[in-house]
Design a protein that fits this description.
The protein is an alpha/beta fold and 472 residues long. It has helices spanning 3-33, 52-72, 84-109, 116-146, 161-171, 190-200, 214-226, 266-285, 287-300, 367-374, 382-388, 401-404, 435-447, 451-467; strands at residues 152-157, 176-179, 204-207, 230-233, 245-250, 253-258, 317-319, 325-327, 392-394, 420-422. It has three domains: 3-146, no CATH class; 152-258, NAD(P)-binding Rossmann-like Domain (Rossmann fold, 3-Layer(aba) Sandwich), CATH 3.40.50.720; 266-467, no CATH class. The longest helix is centred in the N-terminal third of the chain and has 31 residues, at 3-33.
């Protein structure tokens, strides 16, 4: 999902709240006018009307309740696909339920602090202000789309009536830049798709062609997974079993989308909030530990406290989400300027199959380094990476660029999301785990993500680390 889609999706919540408060403030002003205009005379005089601060507290509470009703009516999907008419209906329905709920509550408790006519004004103006807020968001979103910000490049695979209707609908939408091969492609090989993807910077593929073999359909799906491209298809083209399936329509054409992970939309937002809050708390709590470890490392051996630079002076980097590099932080656990030995005289001592290099009884490790690696203390500085958003608390392992360069195509799926400090692989064997098994576990995590799964992994990580087993 585009960052702009997430931004505008989240933006609706504070804008909606402000619009509701604005409606209450308009009603607050109108109650004063009632003393001078007879036909809108309110039953409560200005003297008995609550103070502005108390009224604002009431409006804030009522606004939060209103937001809950909007959320219940699916008004906060991050990807805005609903028409304005549908959006207005949702606002109207939510406003009506909200209004009757508040009236019923105060009718039963008989504690309403001011004229019910003010609440009626708030109900009417909240519909107007909310819809105005949504129009404002769409205006700015469409304004950015005109300059290509937020547009999604879509490739339609297929030459049939459905394709024609779909391409026409996509071209009429400001959200998409659609591409469709001029000639029918009968061989949807990775090579052919790669050329189209590179040429048009494709981010989504919609398959409508039904005259291709099942194996080719699977190859297209696998290509999208490896290259982090959103894959959609018109239903009944492909029989697959996936948990992350989403249905929607464009121009009346029903489309089924296979999402590589449920960690999208609000899932992505909730995970980031969770990471930010927990990492901030841990950084504050563990400050004394950081200071103590730093002193011990300096006393034990020469060199910097943190491992942030390679032997040639270049910054230490890891491969993150969708193959993006990021600066990486760890406590130094080895002799200074000994990192390059792993690809030199120590290369033959690696005990793991695959692209990862793991050396048992690594002679480069210092005395303190052996202890902090055993209990994963050397990884505590990665909380800074979590705090700034390069890493997550839970996710696939963050590997070295030279290791990722040796990945086979199916392995690249683990780059779909942010890597993590810990994950299923780390609690299932740490460095003793076979690389292919590690990829299987990371793939399972990506496809079955939930906050509850994150909590279980974090909880189990504590016991795995305390045992100190399986660490090189």
């Amino acid at each position: 999902m585009k960052k702009s889609e997430i931004f505008f999706g989240i933006l609706r919540i504070p804008i909606d709240f402000l619009m509701i408060i604005a409606a209450f403030l308009i009603a607050f002003k109108l109650r004063a006018v009632g003393d001078f205009i007879p036909f809108i005379q309110l039953s409560t005089s200005i003297e008995t009307f609550p103070e502005f601060y108390e009224y604002l507290k009431f409006a804030s509470k009522a606004g939060i309740v209103f937001l809950l009703f909007l959320a219940f009516n699916h008004s906060y999907a991050l990807k805005i696909t609903t028409k304005l008419s549908r959006e207005f209906k949702i606002i109207l329905t939510s406003a009506f339920v909200w209004f009757t709920t508040i009236l019923a509550y105060y009718f039963l408790t008989r504690t309403f602090p001011f004229s019910r006519l003010v609440l009626i004004y708030s109900f009417i103006f909240s519909i107007v202000t909310l819809f105005f807020g949504r129009l404002l968001i769409r205006f700015w979103q469409n304004f950015l789309l005109k300059y290509g910000i937020g547009k999604r490049n879509v490739l339609v695979l297929g030459k049939n009536k459905i394709s024609e209707n779909l391409v026409l609908a996509l071209k009429n939408s400001s959200n998409y830049q659609v591409f469709s091969p001029k000639k029918i492609i009968y061989n949807y090989s990775s090579e052919n798709l790669s050329k189209l993807v590179d040429k048009f910077k494709i981010e989504e593929i919609i398959q409508t062609e039904n005259k291709i073999k099942d194996q080719e359909s699977r190859d297209i799906l696998e290509f999208c997974r490896e290259n982090h491209i959103q894959y959609h298809f018109v239903p009944d083209l492909l029989e697959v079993q996936r948990s992350n399936v989403e249905f929607f329509s464009i121009g009346g054409v029903p489309i089924m989308s296979l999402k590589p992970t449920s960690l999208d939309g609000w899932g992505r937002v909730s995970k980031r909030i969770f990471d930010f809050v927990i990492s901030l708390m841990l950084l504050i709590i563990l400050t004394p530990v950081f200071i103590l470890i730093s002193i011990i490392i300096k006393l034990d051996s020469k060199g910097p406290v943190f491992f942030t630079k390679l032997d040639d002076g270049s910054p230490v980097k890891r491969v993150g989400e969708k193959g993006q590099f990021f600066r990486f932080f760890k406590f130094r656990s080895m002799r200074d300027k000994s990192d390059s030995l792993r690809y030199g005289e120590l290369l033959n001592q690696s005990h793991r199959k695959g692209p990862l290099i793991k050396i048992k009884d690594d002679p480069r490790i210092t005395k303190v380094g052996k202890f902090i690696r055993k209990y994963s203390i050397d990884e505590l500085p990665q909380l800074f990476n979590v705090f700034v958003g390069n890493l997550s608390l839970v996710g696939p392992r963050a590997h070295l660029p030279e290791e990722v360069a040796k990945y086979q195509n199916p392995h690249k799926f683990v780059l779909t999301i942010k890597p993590g400090i810990t994950g299923l692989a780390q609690i299932s064997g740490r460095s003793d785990l076979d690389f292919e098994k590690e990829v299987q576990l990371d793939t399972y995590y990506i496809e079955n993500w939930s906050l509850w799964l994150d909590l279980k992994i974090l909880f189990k990580t504590i016991f795995v680390v305390m045992k100190g087993e399986g660490a090189d």
